[in-house]
Amino acid sequence: MVTDAPPEADILPPKPDLGHVRAEHGVIKESLGYRVFQVVNVVALLLICAVTLYPFINLVAKAFSSEGYIAAGEVNLIPRGFNIETFQAVLGDGLFWTNYGNTVIYTVVATAISMFLTTTYAYAISRPDLKGRTFFIGVAVFTMFFSGGLIPNYILVASWLGWRNTIWAVVVPGALSVFNLLVMKSFFENFPAELEEAAAIDGLSTYGVFFRIVLPLSKAVLATMTLFYAVGMWNSWFGAFLYIDDKNLFPVTVYLRNLIASATGTTDLAGTAAETTQVAANIQSVTMLLTVLPIVCLYPFIQRYFVSGVMLGSVKG
C-alpha cells in the first residue's frame, strides 16, 4: 500500500536562527542590534588597548625627555626637551653590557633547564598507566601551596649546595613552574594515543616516541611555555640580589635596581670622574626601555604559537 509522502516541511531540517542577520532580496544584512554590538565591542577594545599601551608610551616619552620636564610632571605621551644624554651614559657603562650579557646567559640556561624538566615531568604524569601517578601529581601540586621559606632556601642554596655567586643559584631554585607543568600535562593528555601506539609498533621506545613524535607535534605549547619561562627569568631580580655579591655577575635587572636606588642626586653612571645630575624617573625609564626591548621585539614572532598553545593546554576533551 502506498502512503502519501510527508510534507516537505517535515523532512527538511529546521533553518538556523541567525538572530543578528536578516535576508532581503537574497542579500544577508546585519540587524541594528548586531551592528550596535560591533560598535560597542570595537570601542571597548580600543579603550583597553589605550589603557594597555599608555604606560609603555609614557615610558618611551620619559626616556627621551629632559630632567626638568619630568620633574615638573609635564611628560605624558610626547617627549619634552629631547634628551639622549642618559642613553649615552647608560650605554657607555661597561657594567651595563656585562650585566646585560649575564641576563641573556641566565635566561637561555634557565629556560633550557625549565623546559627539559617541565616536558619530561608533564609527559610522565600524563600517562594513565604510570605507577604512582597520583603521588607525583600531588607532590607537584603541594609545592603550589607550601614552600620551605626564604631562610631555609637561602641556607640550602648558599651553604649546603655552595652555589653562592654562581649561575646555578639564579637558574635552579625556580626552574619548575607547577602552573606550566599542569598546562603541559593537560596538553599531553589530549595527544592522540593512536600516534604513539603506531610509533611503538614501528619499534620506537618510550624515549623515541617522546622526542621524535610527541615533541615535534607540540610546537604550540612548547613555544608558549618557553615564552613564559624566558620572560619570567628575564624580569627576575630577587634571586640574583639574594645569592650574588659580585657586581660582574648581576643580571641587568639588579643593575636597574641599583641604578634607581642610587639616582637620588648626583650619579656617576659610567664609573668615571664625570658626574651627571639625573632624575630617577629618567634613569629608570631609559634602563627599563633597554631591558624590555628584546622581549617586545621577540613577542610578535611567537604570538600565534602563544595563543594556540594556551588554548590547547587549557581544556581537556
What can you tell me about this protein's structure?
By secondary structure, the chain is mainly alpha-helical. It has two domains: 21-71; 85-314, MetI-like fold. 66% of the residues lie in helices and 4% in strands. The protein is built from 15 helices and four strands. The chain has helices at residues 8-11, 32-63, 67-71, 85-91, 94-126, 133-145, 150-160, 168-171, 178-189, 193-201, 206-214, 219-235, 238-243, 252-262, 280-314, and strands at 21-24, 27-30, 266-267, 276-277. The strands form two sheets. A two-stranded antiparallel ribbon has the order 1-2. The chain has a two-stranded antiparallel sheet with strand order 3-4. A hairpin with a 2-residue loop joins strand 1 and strand 2. Helix 2 runs antiparallel to helix 15, helix 9 runs parallel beside helix 15 (280-314) and helix 14 packs antiparallel against helix 15. The longest helix is centred in the last third of the chain and has 35 residues, at 280-314.
Show the helix and strand layout:
Layout: H1 8-11, E1 21-24, E2 27-30, H2 32-63, H3 67-71, H4 85-91, H5 94-126, H6 133-145, H7 150-160, H8 168-171, H9 178-189, H10 193-201, H11 206-214, H12 219-235, H13 238-243, H14 252-262, E3 266-267, E4 276-277, H15 280-314
Antiparallel strand pairs: 1-2, 3-4
Subcellular location: Cell membrane
Membrane topology: Multi-pass membrane protein
Protein name: Carbohydrate ABC transporter permease
